[in-house]
Amino acid sequence: MDTHSAPVALVESLTDPEVLAAVNGAANMVEDKDSVALALSVTDDHAGALVAAADAVTSRLPRTLALMDNGKLSGFGAAKVATATTWLSDEDPRAVDALLEDRIAEKNPDQVRKAANHAANTIDPDGAGKRAEQNRKGRRLTLRHGETGVASIEVEDGPVEKVAAAYQRIDREARALRGDGETRTLEQLRADVALDLLLGGQGGVSECSEVFLYMDLFTYLGLNDDPAELAGHGTIPAALARHIATGENTLLRRIVTDPSSGQVLDLGRGRYRPTAGLAEFVRVRDRECRRPGCHRPAQACDLDHAVPWAVS
Asked: Do 287 and 210 touch, CB atoms closer than 8 A?
């Protein structure tokens, strides 16, 4: 086994159904997580995560456990379901489990994460809204000093719409700096732009940047509580979506979709190079990058064909 696959195999072995059950049993027999960490030769945090996943999957998510047992879901995927349902109470995790049974088989962990978060928000929209509100109260700025002249600064648990807008502005200005003679990488440019804005910007003055929020009309009007989607981030509770959508700087735009599928209607095509309107339509329709595993908002992506253009 090569050095790359060995750690992956180890983590997978620690999250198969039998080991999850064993970890859960061990946790019930000890008084602290240190003993679990010692028994498994992992860190305390890792041991705590394994115990929590074991408890959730074996006691609250029987269908997820069955998918793992049948080889249709990885340990990583099951951990995503456990994380998405950890805040739910009573019978709600089993309801989420039932919703996901036919949706997460053979899916990768990120697809499972999105599906599980959406299901949890659907099952308990009020709880999801309260959780989002509580999480946003924990926003903070942290500074970590590194080695040899480096340090890190991070906004943690900031309002998702503001963090997304800030990143879009930083990314836009960083990309504008690329050109002849520029030797810095795009990652370096983003870091430099962010620090320049912090040091030279006007604190507290709002900047205009775009984030794209997708919600149905009935949710916006408060007639239902279906989860909404923030491009590049994923599912957010209906209450938070309405809070963002009713902000003083929010621009609402009507998008006509197929009533049966929700798909944005096709505009047709007449030439290879899209018009500005068609380019905007494609980005609004696709929401995120089409590359598997990439969740960059479509507005920050190059416009190209997912299916090759028919030249004849």
From this structure: no
